[in-house]
Amino acid sequence: MIDQAHIRALTDILGDKGIVQEPGAMVAYQTGARYDEGLAGLVLRPATTEEVSAAVAYCVRHGLSLVPQSGNTGLVSGSTPDASGAQLVLSLDRMTRRFDLDLDNRSLHVDAGFRLSEVNQRLESHDLFFPIDLGADPRLGGMLSTNTGGSRFLKYGDVRRNTLGIKVVLADEEGTILDLAADLRKNNTGVDWKQIFIGTSGAFGIITECVLNLEALPKQVATAYLVPASGAHVMPLLRAMEQKLGAYLSAFEGMSRNAVAAALDHVPSLRNPFQGGVIPDYVILCEISRTWEPREGEQGLDAVLETVLSEIWESEDAPLADAFVGPAHEMWALRHALSEGVKHAGKLIAFDLSFRRGDIMAFCDRMKADMPAAFPEVTICDFGHIGDGGVHFNLVVPKDSAATTDKAFEQRLRDWVFDIAVRDFDGSFSAEHAIGRKNQAYYDLYTDEKIKDMAAGLKAITSPGPLGTVRFG
User: Fold this and answer.
1) Ramachandran angles phi, psi of 221, nearest 5°
2) Lowest mean pLDDT: which of 68-77, 110-119, 461-470?
3) Which residue, 161, 177, 167, 111, is CA-closest to 139?
4) What is the DSSP letter of 193?
5) Residue 472: per-residue pLDDT
6) Is the pLDDT of residue 123 over 80?
7) DSSP secondary structure string for all residues of 116-184
């Protein structure tokens, strides 16, 4: 319970629109995207960086714990309060005033509360976009604080690569505003301070504004489903595509049979594109793109893709068993339906892992071989960004299983998967979902003590007040 004196003081700072305290109205801020629910003592909704600063300063001076929240689309309990009722949520959802587009610099200085969809909708008329392709629709502040990647990382990179500058509020008694919002692509004058706040889950400060690199909107796109000859042929296939297509290749997404089946079962409007309705063991969605309109006499991208696939098909020890080019909107519709399909197949226990590219299929094969004996009730429904080494390793427990409510079962399963991924394959337990409360124990377990000491030191320097859900010490 938050003292009424604090509520009155924060209302004076933020105004009536900047405070949410009715239990029913706070539910959306307390409930995460997946099996995640806490209890907020109060929700703060500042509209400007200055209001964030004033509210944060007050909370730090009075020892009030803050959880920054952006679009609340995260999956690791990084943006919701715990069950104590003592934490305040600071939402960015009113921070949507600044939207300054610089066409010459191909950059956008924007408030952190804008959703990705709205940013790209506004940019479309200028033939530009922020090139992070996600299944969810987050706000920019959360995208930066978790360093999201997405389905076109292969071509455009992650948020870190596409951020030129930020403005951030530190959790100290002054609510210090740190202006790192330079719109320069080259600035080698010392430490790149903005990178301390990108990908660190909001623990070091609250990002309130950002300067984003923009890319030209693709004007030509071709997509195909590729069926590799075997799991061992996935990497040779990717290498062949990269060699023959170069910068044209914008996505190389892997989809397991179980994940595809779950999507087709959950979304009746999806068309099963496979011959006889038989889903292959593994399918790759590849995409190539150009940023200009078709030119007279220029070979179309569908033809380019078909030519390349024919060359690979005819090569020695061909890594390709089957392939067909199809409409991009239909092919991506299936890819984007995977998350919801898997989620509705049963109790979902999700992992966001990354590996050296050559280890992805080896890890998946290891799991398929060992899972039936270790956890016989579990079905593997994996998919991911093969081109950048990431895999959404989703495990589904039947809805009628007692294991769905057995926290000890889930803990054993998580420990087992993470241990193999990190210790046996030198992978990461969090490819792009950041840390959050769900991954805190694994950060503590797998992170070098010196690194933890350095992170704790940075936290003490930047934001000594109680901020965020992650303990970096």
Assistant:
1) -140, 140
2) 68-77
3) 111
4) T
5) 86
6) yes
7) HHHHHHHHGGGTEE-----SS--BHHHHHHHT---TTHHHH--TGGGEEEEEEE-SSTT--EEEE----
